[in-house]
Amino acid sequence: NPNCAEDDIFFQAMEEVLLSIFPLFKSDEVYSKNAKNAVIRRLITPDRVIKFKVVWMDDNNEVQVNTGYRVQFNNALGPYKGGLRFHPSVNEGILKFLGFEQILKNALTGLPLGGAKGGSDFDPKGKSDFEVMKFCKAFMRELYKHIGPRIDVPAGDIGVGGREIGYLFGEYKRMTSAFEGVLTGKPFFFGGSLMRPEATGYGVVYFTRKMLELDGKESLEGKVCTVSGSGNVALHAIEKLQQLGANPVTCTDSKGMIYDARGLDLALLKELKFVRRTSLEEYAKVHPEAAYTPVSEYPEGAHAVWDIPCYAAFPCATQNELNKKDAENLVKNGCVSVSEGANMPSTTEAIDLMLKNKICLAPAKAANAGGVAVSGFEMSQNAAMQRWSFAKVDVKLQETMEEICENVASTAKEFGVEGNYVVGANIAGFKRVADAMIAEGV
Ligand code: NDP
Description:
By secondary structure, this protein is of the alpha/beta class. The chain is 46% helix and 15% strand. Among the domains are: 46-182, Rossmann fold (3-Layer(aba) Sandwich), CATH 3.40.50.10860; 198-367, NAD(P)-binding Rossmann-like Domain (Rossmann fold, 3-Layer(aba) Sandwich), CATH 3.40.50.720. The longest helix is centred in the last third of the chain and has 25 residues, at 390-414.
């Protein structure tokens, strides 16, 4: 519906993909004009959008009403799979954009996973643990009708971590009496995979390491890196960067940015964000040498984090957090690579500018696929009643991220755009899904 402003972000995601897969249609006879049109029309339309009311009681015994969604986008390759986002900005358009991206991302992992996304406009911030539990249980009392280990397997995203997945799983079990792998991102002691919390952030760094190697660039060791966000993806990217000897110096939240040139105190960040769930401003109180910049003091039309000189940048917070002005700042400061940990963090203009200036750009659907890959491993472990060691999951994650990177790089080369990981990822992901859709018939 072109008149619906909510869908703007979905169109942005579609446009980026559809424009970049053009070389495939020029070169490949499988995609005759009719097949091309039909497969695209089928691909950009979700199989179904489930929208429901979530009613729950807050701690003051007041009735609260939120909206819940599940966008089951495409299951050509396997059961629907994708996270749940709890954030006040959630609407159908955002979930369609995320679900569409998820189809191609899941295809790139090589695992048998379809694409979906869901969530609610519920804001977990400022809610008690008990309120979060009551909301999650009310949400699942509707969602459970639509999901199952072979049908649709949700996971976490912004605002949904191990705590929320635990409550959701508990309610699914109560409604169905089935203890089964219907959600991933579960805490380890009742069926989660080791390394699932770390997987997306670590995976982004593994992808970047391989991309720099393939492009003949210097490694991350000893290099200054900038990271945005301070949630699950950002803090684990920072952790892996530090383990590889890089120096990540920034992180952000919705209120501001921390810049600690000596290197970030990760233990403190985890305490502030995962345990106390508080603002980054607290960091500067413990480390007065670090600079805290509130959002109100960001330069006009830009984000302060992308004007800190760095070798590699990692946007890991949210969509459209790196715009054209930010991209100009990255180029001006000599940044060599940008790896998207968040989903679609760069605007279309920023992507164009970075590619024109030969920045190695790792697009989200390839670079942040480590999370869903380990979710796939969690499904395998649940189905086989097994538990893999941390080291085994880590090896498989590294292999997967390197394979995705090599596949994307070689696809870009095959289609005459060597070094363009955006086009490479879109064509490689699209081809796998489109081939399955054509083979399965209408
Ligand atoms: P979290 O909820 O753990 O963290 C989100 C972070 O982003 C927080 O620091 C939050 O700040 C900040 N943030 C959220 N919205 C905004 C905004 N509008 N403006 C500025 N900052 C914002 O989420 P995740 O780390 O899990 O997810 C981050 C990104 O990565 C999302 O794009 C998600 O879709 C993507 N992703 C996540 C995966 C996963 O496995 N978790 C897998 C693949 C992609 P504050 O603390 O103030 O709320």
